Amino acid sequence: MKIGVPKEIKNNENRVGMTPAGVFELTRKNHTVFVQKDAGFGSGFFDQDYKDVGAIILDTIEEVYAFSEMIVKVKEPIEKEYSLIKPHHVVFTYFHFASSEPLTKAMLKSKAVCIAYETVEDKDGSLPLLTPMSEVAGRMAIQQGAKYLEKPIKGRGVLLGGVPGVPPGKVLVLGAGTVGIQAAKMAAGLGAHVTIMDINMKQLRYVNDVMPNHVVTEFSSEYNIRKRIKDHDLIIGGVLIKGAKAPKLITKDMLKEMRPGTVIVDVAVDQGGCFETTKATTHEDPTYIIDDVVHYCVANMPGAVPYTSTLALTNVTLPYVLKLANLGWEDACKIDKTLEKGLNIVDGKIVYEEIAEAFNWSIEAM
């Protein structure tokens, strides 16, 4: 199979869809891999590294798409790429269709096979290709939140860990999944007081068992959220519903109940965000302020640490890339039901129900 690895062109996205190690595994099985010039540069991988393991370096993104049957990326295609995607393509990347109607319509029009990392699902309900980036984003949420709590950046001026004689900052984490647990772990490590909320009591029991005593659990409800936002300094939104839009847990009117300089970080922004006032931002311009509350809503948080993120992502995507290349997408998905869950759009039709529901479309009408 001919596999293309384009350079990511989303704002400040420095990750790459495949490392030289991945190219080596594909070329040794007689697949052809086209890598766009400087595609790996932001992650610390150079063109010569790819050439040394058999990749063919192409100058332009147009060439990569034109010569390839399968495209392996990190982030969803942006408008500039829509016309490059053709019916013969299999595109394997993060899509997050439920948060973007224009992207969904463009991929339907392309009639390509779209396999989304974020909906590849194991038998136990876990999301193996989303987990590593959720781990990175959860940890980064605290790192960024702590920074934006500083007064020069319009935060409350709170040091999360406090100092002797001064209480630590308070962190509220919404969601006890991968993002929430990693965020709580980082905040606890800094010495902050952490409250983590979820509606899944099994998850809350797990958190209660593994976290230190200054991480407390609480059942998530609007009443409890409204109560906690009044005195917490940093609020992390980490709620995920597989393939669907995130629920709006913090509404605009709630901002007035927060103290000026409170920081909210929406890690669910890729799925539409779990704050009503969320709008996607970039690493170039990461924050905005509404009602004196600092919003950090960067849609590709792991892109800021591309070396770590690329390795973490490709560790888990490569086995699926190999399976798709070796067997073709139809046979690979028949054999591997985990991979089959990643099918979102095929031949101009939505095949993942939650995407249709996000736009109130009928999947039967596709």
Textual characterization of the structure:
Keywords: NAD, Nucleotide-binding, Oxidoreductase. Pfam families: AlaDh_PNT_C, AlaDh_PNT_N. It catalyses: L-alanine + NAD(+) + H2O = pyruvate + NH4(+) + NADH + H(+). Belongs to the AlaDH/PNT family. The active site is at residues 96, 270. The protein has 366 residues and is an alpha/beta fold. It has 2 domains: 2-120 and 306-365, Rossmann fold (3-Layer(aba) Sandwich); 131-304, NAD(P)-binding Rossmann-like Domain (Rossmann fold, 3-Layer(aba) Sandwich), CATH 3.40.50. It is built from 13 helices and 15 strands. It has helices spanning 20-27, 47-52, 61-67, 79-82, 101-110, 131-148, 178-190, 201-210, 222-228, 306-327, 329-335, 337-340, 353-358; strands at residues 2-5, 32-36, 56-58, 70-72, 90-93, 113-116, 170-174, 193-198, 215-219, 234-237, 263-266, 287-290, 293-296, 343-346, 349-350. Strands 3-2-1-4-5-6-14-15 form an 8-stranded mixed β-sheet, sandwiched between helices. A 7-stranded mixed β-sheet has the order 9-8-7-10-11-13-12, sandwiched between helices. α6 packs parallel to α7 and α10 packs across α11. The radius of gyration is 21 Å and the shape is globular. The chain starts with a strand and ends in an 8-residue tail after the last helix.
Structural class by SSE content: alpha/beta
Please mark out the parts with pLDDT under 50 across 5 or more consecutive residues, or reply none. Answer: none
- Elements, N to C (H/E): EHEHEHEHEHEHEHEHEHEEEEHHHEEH
Strand percentage, roughly?
15-25%
Per DSSP E runs of 2 or more residues, the count of β-strands stands at: 15
Q: Give the CA-CA distance, first to last residue.
A: 29 Å
Q: CATH-wise, what's the superfamily of the largest domain?
A: NAD(P)-binding Rossmann-like Domain
| Separate helix tally | 13
State mean pLDDT (0 to 100 scale): 95
Helical amount: 25-40%
CATH architecture of the largest domain, by name, is 3-Layer(aba) Sandwich
| CATH-defined fold name of the largest domain | Rossmann fold
Overall number of domains: 2
User: Cα-atom Rg, whole angstroms?
Assistant: 21 Å
